[in-house]
């Protein structure tokens, strides 16, 4: 049942994002920022944690999950280090996922022969 919940929740998030992209004049970068900020706000309010427990990877993999990770990192860093944690926490929490995406993206570019569109 965990796989089914992850599938339909992740699919719903992606479908709603696609509808937002097609029905509004918002640029994709702004929609991405909106998703990250929404995840952070939902984490701050306390809604995202139970949502993530229910949906698993369907909630943690999309950009909403990245916003929640940033929020958790900032919250923990502020608790430990005070005001300086506002600046350090997000970097500490999001660095492993960002680094993995960059490294695996680089390896994929070595394995596959990408071409520019004409």
UniProtKB/TrEMBL annotation:
One Pfam family here: SpoVAC_SpoVAEB
Assigned keywords, A-Z: Membrane, Transmembrane, Transmembrane helix
Transmembrane annotation, as ranges: 31-47, 91-112
Superkingdom of origin: Bacteria
InterPro entries linked: SpoVA
Protein name: SpoVA/SpoVAEb family sporulation membrane protein
Organism: Hominiventricola filiformis
